[in-house]
Amino acid sequence: MATPAPHTEKPHVLFFPFPAQGHVKPALQLAKLLHHYHGFQVTFVHTEHNRRRLLRAHRPDALSGIPGFCFAAVPDGLPPSDVNASQDMAALLLSLETSVPHFRNLVADLPPVSCVISDIEHILIAAKEMGLRCVTFWTTGACAFMACQQCQQLVDMGILPFKEAEQLRNGYLDRTVVDWVPGMPKHIRLRDFPSFIRTTDPEDPMIKILLSSMACHRTTPSAIIFHTFDELERETIAAMAGILPPIYAVGPLPLLVSQIPVGGALDTLESNLSKENHACLEWLKGKGPNSVVYVSFGSIATLNKEQLVEFAWGLANSKQEFLWVIRDDLVNNGADEPANVLPPEFLEGTKARNYMTNWVPQDAVLQHEAIGAFLTHCGWNSMLESISAGVPMLCWPFGADQYTNSRYACSEWRVGMEISSDAKRDEVESAIREVMEGERGKEMKRTVMEWKEKATVAAMPGGPSWVNLEKVIREVICLAQGAEEPLAEKHSET
Ligand code: UDP
Question: Which protein family is it in (predicted)?
């Protein structure tokens, strides 16, 4: 952005993202933008568990903060666990309510907070009760959020919870089309809904959390900031305008943040909970354009031994070079050491054309010209990063919003090809060959390059996402407390 928006005083914004990698990373990106371009004071809240992980992964001063940008930490209510591994997300969702008193104490100790930005229901509600302006920053796509917003309707229609476990197994989810959701394509099926709905338990705690959190985001925040861009999800965003507070699409954030000049103090503020292996970029340097398959299942998804072995042989038999992120806790939640599960013949047979590591600087990897395709679990950040880099995807959704993301990537944006959840090595091999060498792969590459262009335009100074960011600052975050709340219809044209 060429000119920072004029402000007479510097607002103090408190960020408290849901404490998982895929939420913390875009939240820090948004915080950096508000600080760098608008001079906002920022307090960024981690859980103590994540604070330990971050400090372990980076320098001891990685969370010391810089002038006007501080970090704080609160307990998450869970017992201590392995500092190198992702926590149990369901347990975390259930325990976060216990962070509220710590959040209240923190706010009381800080300089006056102008606005709280969070995606945690309890934090938004507490902030509002304390008389603070609060804004939801939703870090997954608008499409999955819209699907989640329909869950109350699914309950009211008697669809949710499912009557029999059979319905979750025998293709019922695949066959059942949900063609009545405003702003969503008519071909969306129950299978494409976030996986939280896959329950037969009327008391399922995840469904209860989902329903109450969706209600909270309709009524509590003054606005919802989405990590997406208008062109990508225009119809969904337009349909949501009628049921939600004002919506602002401000992504893809990595493209906006990349415009902050390097070498400044903000560079020292890290959000990766695991230590990145930068040597993989050296390995990529020697590779031809579009010649390497990048494989990563994000920070939470886990595989069983058989799945890992099938992916390994699929990669080996495809004869392509590949860079594979295998987290220490990837196989059975860390119960199995990946090195002990991968067959020695696979390791020997692919050693000249593979690079396997625990964690990489994914943005830089995807932006590397050597990457030809991304075999992904369809986490929202990964998908936006892949689109932003013009890399076609092989989609293997694992859970949560990833089913919705995969459906959109394959059937709407046409930048991905789905692999079955129980895919064996032959399917993996042929999907990799198709995306790297086949006609469908070429078509996906052409389409994703068009999306890359649209994402780039959205993130350019003066582009829709910059404009939306300025609007939410002006119309919501900087609006004086007690001033008139912005009206949804004022923003429907965004
Ligand atoms: N990521 C990374 N290095 C890796 C793997 C993942 O930096 O080796 C980042 C990735 O760039 C993305 C985030 O971790 O920003 C994962 O978020 P996503 O929404 O894709 O998936 P989740 O981990 O939430 O399932």
Answer: Belongs to the UDP-glycosyltransferase family.
